[in-house]
Amino acid sequence: MTHSPPSQRVGRRSFDVAPIELFFDLVYVFAIIQLSHLLVAHLSWLGALEMVVVFAAVWWGWNYTAWAMNWLDPNRTTVQVSTGVLMLMALGMAIAIPDAFGNAAWLFVGCYLLMGVMRPLLVIASFRGTQIAHNYRMLLAWTLFAGVFWVVGAALDPSARLALWIIAVAIDYAAPLLQFRVPGVGSAPMHLWDTEPDHLAERNRLVFIIALGESILMMGGTIVDAEAVSPGLITSLLLGFAALFVLWWNYFALAGHNVQGGDGSTAALRSAYAYAHAFMVLGAILVAVSTELRLSHEHLTPATVVVTIAGPFVYLMGNVLFLRSRFGRLAASRFVAMALLLLIGAGSLFWLDHVPTIMLSIAVLAVITALAVTTVVQSSRQR
To answer: Each residue of 314-328: pLDDT tens digit?
Structure first.
């Protein structure tokens, strides 16, 4: 009689999102709040670049944990305890976010690398002698390679740190594209990863909803902190909420439970979820930041205009990659919407002193509403 390893799924795997996975995601509610506040506090091109680098690490930590749960049994005590430890490390990263380029660099990097080492070791121990164990050995090698740049960057001053951390992010994100190849040792091409599409899709849908929830928190917080609730503030709140709802509507018409078919290969899933959803979640965070800026400022500033356009624009970049990866479509409607957003942004910057904040909000809302309606209609026809 054979026994499965202590953390491995037994028999036919169940791909429902387990309670321990939902519990793990609670940390990312806090992490997304921290990322939003980091950008609001450092609203400059440098601040935006630093925020993107920190976001890239936070997202990769979540992404690799979600992928590992394709193989690990969430009902096993070993996996539950290990996920709790990963959750604690993710919390440490989230706490360090505001000062990651200051005194909290070691906390941020230490927690990120501990997560990056612990996950593959757990899978390797649970799947000894199998292909998935070999895959995770290759992944671990790339994590340690990137870790050199994370550690050296943490030891340097903030200006040099940014350059080293950009290299580290590039290595982490390039690893799957390069098939985790280690010269003289081996590789782990995507077709050797037995991945379940439904589980990954549901995990990514849930984290996207968490990202949208940040807009609710920032809108509510701005209203509560306002000295007086004016008609203009209420109007801005309604427009912000409408934009949030339309973004949710568009997303679930695009990648919701009723969307059927598509390429289910691991390479396609990697692009659609590891990479495309990084853009969509980042876009949702930028939407939250822009909503807070428009609620708390009566007049437009260049930074407000850029963030307001960047939110849906980055989100749509993710849409394009998602549709191309899973369905092989070019998503012409997304390119049209992106072009319109750029025109709105350029016009707002050119006539900055003459464009009311509410007009920018209405223009952006009109574009994403039209896109959402188009997406819903197209999705209905394809069912």
So the answer is: 999 999 999 999 888
Rounded to the nearest 5°, which phi and psi values hold at 8? -85, 145
Q: Which two tokens stand for residue 263?
A: 């390429």
pLDDT for 256 equals 81
Distance of CA 376 to the CA centre of its chain: 23
Q: How confident is the model at residue 379 (pLDDT cuts 50, 70, 90)?
A: confident
- Give the Cα separation of 243 and 356 in Å (integer): 17
What is the C-alpha to C-alpha distance for residues 142 and 116, in angstroms, rounded to an integer? 10
Contact 285, 35 (CB under 8 A): yes
The token pair that represents 11 in the structure block:
């028999």
Q: What is the pLDDT of residues 253-279, one digit of tens each?
A: 988 877 767 888 999 999 999 999 999
Task: Determine how many CB atoms are found less than 10 A away from the CB of residue 233.
Answer: 16
Say which residues have a Cβ less than 8 Å from residue 316's Cβ, sequence separation at least 6: 283, 334, 337, 338, 341, 371
| Interatomic CA distance for residues 111 and 88, integer angstroms | 9
The residues, any chain, with a CB within 8 Å of residue 364's CB and separated by 6 or more, are 243, 308, 309, 312, 341, 344
SS (H, E, C) 156-194: CCHHHHHHHHHHHHHHHHHHHHCCCCECCCECCCHHHCC
Residue 215: closest CA among 234, 239, 249, 240: 240
Q: Which two tokens stand for residue 343?
A: 């025109």
**Which residue bears the tokens 């260049």?**
302
Q: What single letter denotes the amino acid at residue 249?
A: W
Using DSSP's 3-state secondary structure scheme, residue 226 falls into coil
